[in-house]
Amino acid sequence: ALPRFEEVYERHFGFVWRNLRRLGVAEASLDDAAQDVFVTIHRRLAEFEGRSALTTWIFAIVLGTARNYRRGHKRRAP
User: Fold this and answer.
1) pLDDT reading at 76 higher than 90
2) Exposure of 12 in the CB half-sphere (CA atoms within 13 A)
3) For labeling, which of 8, 43, 58, 78 is most exposed (least CB within 10 Å)?
4) CB proximity list for 69: less than 8 A, separation 6 or greater
5) Using CA atoms, how far apart are residues 25 and 31, in angstroms rounded to an integer?
6) 36: Cβ–Cβ under 8 A, 6 or more apart, which residues?
7) Cα first-last separation, the chain
8) Entry pTM
9) How far apart are CA 76 and CA 35, in angstroms?
């Protein structure tokens, strides 16, 4: 059975936050990036098939989100 979104959020928020920061998301963007990760998780949780650990699946979402934020930050930089 799939975990409830609320459980995923409570258990994995720290993991998401730490990895976004470690992957180079600007401090000022961490809140927005974390929210984007959890919006994606909420939207796609029903698609999680359990072929990997939940944290592995979440980390893939974190990687993509961090990549998008780093790219966007570079574009906006003077």
Assistant:
1) no
2) 25
3) 78
4) 20, 25, 26, 29, 32, 33
5) 10
6) 65, 68
7) 48
8) 0.89
9) 20
> Residues 41-53: pLDDT tens digits?
999 999 999 999 9
Residue type, 35: Q
pLDDT, tens digit, 9 for 90 and up, residues 4-27: 999 999 999 999 999 999 999 999
Helix ranges (DSSP H) in 3-53: 5-22, 30-44
Q: Range with the lowest mean pLDDT among 6-20, 28-42, 46-60, 61-75?
A: 61-75
Place of tokens 């909420």: 42
For residue 78, pLDDT over 60 is answered with no
Structure tokens at 17: 């936050």
Give dist(CA 16, CA 7) in Å, integer.
14
